[in-house]
Amino acid sequence: MNKARIIFIVLTIYIFAAFGWWTYAHYKNAKLISLQQKDVLEMRCYKATFDIQGGIDQQLFDDTIGLRTFFDPNYPDLEVVFLNNFIPLSNYMVRPKLDSYKSLENNYKRQLWMYIMEGIVMMLLLFWGVIVIYSSFKKELLFKRLQANFLLSITHELKTPLTAMKLYMETLLKRQVSPEQTKTIIENSLIETDRLQEQVEKLLLSAQLDNHKYQLQKQSLNLSELLEEIIANFIRPRNHSLTIETNIQEQVIVQGDANALEMIINNLISNAIKYGGETSTIKISLVQTNQFTSLKIADEGPGIKEEEKKLLFNKFFRTGDENTRKTKGTGLGLFIVKNLVDLHQGKITISNNEPKGTIFEIKLNSDAN
């Protein structure tokens, strides 16, 4: 990755340098052309002088009127000045008209401004293109890193329950166990099966969301009751030491998909337990106003760095590095949450909890009709 980044920087510098040299070369060329045009104009003065003298010698004209009749149509960019009114045909001077010099100067300035404006426009376009390419380049590198981390995590998440189930089955085959032990082994196998099924369903759901094929089944539902049921499921069978403080407004009615909202809440509470610890305190509030319904879930985890908050809802993204991270996960949970919230035309935000931790807030429209 570092090698690719260095190559990109070197190529960018070369392109800008080459374009800068191109602009400078055109500027110098315009200046050279302007000087050459002035030289040509002055050389025409010499030619006109020779032509006038030849006309006088051949007696083609014998007064100033005849001279001008010959001179003006042939040399519109020049003028003849008579220095002696008594013998004008013997004392005259040919020089460029002032308008001719001004025309050359204006043309030079037009060319110069044209090259400058072209240079500015092309430089801006080039700069914009470099930014777009670099942004795409960074996204590609990030996506490759996320994919690598995802492969490490999903391998662990799928391999662990499979290994456990294989061990349980081998225990039943090779050892004589009591009915109570058999029941325990089967129950543990079912738990690992559920865990494996959960990961597979996450993968399928994320694929559906990615392809915009997931359809909500919206209905009017009591979000307060749904939230209390989910919280009860987390406290009773899973962790007796977990503390969840709630502030749930009664009869919060929303238009939504019950399964999708359940997945959203389950993922956020699971994350709060994962990063806050099973003995931490989680605060959950649900409040409805005329404008929106607000669901907040606050944990006491280590918090999220500001630069990672923008990436948190990306597919496969997880804070930290997969090789050193201790918490389980595949980086699909918050990706699923964000997409399901978007399908509900809602908004999810992240803020810092005090004194530590993170607060996830979901806002949904309060229209229950």
Care to describe what's here?
- With 369 residues, the protein is α+β, with helices and mostly antiparallel strands.
- It folds into 2 domains: 2-137, no CATH class; 219-365, Heat Shock Protein 90.
- The chain is 60% helix and 14% strand.
- It has 8 helices and 9 strands.
- The strands form 3 sheets. It has a 5-stranded mixed beta sheet with strand order 4-6-7-9-8.
- Strand 8 (347-352) and strand 9 (358-365) form a beta hairpin.
- Helix 5 (223-235) packs parallel to helix 6 (258-276) and helix 6 runs antiparallel to helix 8.
- The mean pLDDT is 82.
Provide keyphrases for this structure.
alpha+beta; 8 helices; two-stranded antiparallel ribbon; 9 strands; 369 residues; five-stranded mixed β-sheet; elongated; Heat Shock Protein 90
Summarize the structure.
The protein has 369 residues and is an alpha+beta fold. It has eight helices and nine strands.
CATH fold title of the largest domain = Heat Shock Protein 90
CATH architecture of the largest domain: 2-Layer Sandwich
CATH homology superfamily of the largest domain: Histidine kinase-like ATPase, C-terminal domain
CATH class of the largest domain: Alpha Beta
Q: What would you call the shape? A: elongated
The proportion of residues in beta strands is 5-15%
Number of helical segments with 4 or more residues: 8
